[in-house]
Amino acid sequence: MARGWLKAVADTPDIRAEVEVVGLVDVNPAAAKSLAGEFGLTDAVIGSDLAAVLAETAADVVFDVVIPSARHHVVATALAHGCHVLSEKPMASSIQEGRAMIAQAAAAGKVHAIVQNRRFIAGIRRIRRLVESGALGELTAIHCDFFIGAHFGGFREEMDNVLLLDMAIHTFDAARFVADKAPVAVYCHESNPRGSWYAHGAAANAIFEFSDDVTFTYRGSWCAEGANTSWESRWRIIGTQGTLLWDGAEDFQAHRVSGTEGFLRPVDSVLVPEPANVAETHGHASVIADFLTAIKTGRTPETASNDNINSLAMVFAAIESARTRQRVTL
């Protein structure tokens, strides 16, 4: 993932003009050195001790791309050295650690935000604009399907709750953004289907209750071969007056009821608006740009940790519901 972040910096002129990468830290310094060579970072300090590299470089910002179990230590260390922090998702390995990081960032007076890059894509921004326009009436439900036979190898195939913890948070966060509602409760069933090459939790089905009586359902699997959906999931957004279908790629179909007679009422097509700001549709680059703007202007970034913890709470509530087979409130 560090390669993806550095590529976003290198490929985006506005970000490249603002950001100088002064150090790379890895438990395996050889990996950091290799990455520095790949991106021409010949002057970057290489090391395995974050505190030491921060002391040597006097960095202003830390891009935290570590595994979740190491995140709390990395964020705490960065904040203690006066750095703003942009973290990979999920923002913490527990709600308690998430709350601790929020408190630490507030005490330090620094920005801490989370990379939820999949809300910074054109499709999600277009859906949000359509819902906000009222063209579908009042929002009542969001339904998402995610089915991909992904053979990663490595740590993911050894994780517990792999789908919910490592992937579903993207769709959970995007649904929360589209709905602009607060998650209230969830019932979730998790399984590891026959033939799964994962150790645990490769599939899940969750029903979330959002505020204002909005329902969000998620059906997903990382070991479903033969008919992959988009990585962004397949969406059905229902309002009191119409429905939007999105395949997670380029296909949008939106219809609104246009008559008051008949067993099945007639419908008209609805135009799905383009994103209000194209600069907000470039994934990682857009998240980084939003983070840097927040530092410069003092405004709160869209994916600030004190907001993103609500998406993290959806994940852990779903995991707890699956474990207890009970409805869990957030």
UniProtKB/TrEMBL annotation:
Residues 17-111 form the Gfo/Idh/MocA-like oxidoreductase N-terminal domain. Residues 124-244 form the GFO/IDH/MocA-like oxidoreductase domain. One of its GO terms (molecular function) is nucleotide binding. InterPro entries: Gfo/Idh/MocA-like_OxRdtase_N, Gfo/Idh/MocA_oxidoreduct, GFO_IDH_MocA-like_dom, NAD(P)-bd_dom_sf. PANTHER family: CONSERVED EXPRESSED OXIDOREDUCTASE (EUROFUNG), OXIDOREDUCTASE. This is Putative dehydrogenase.
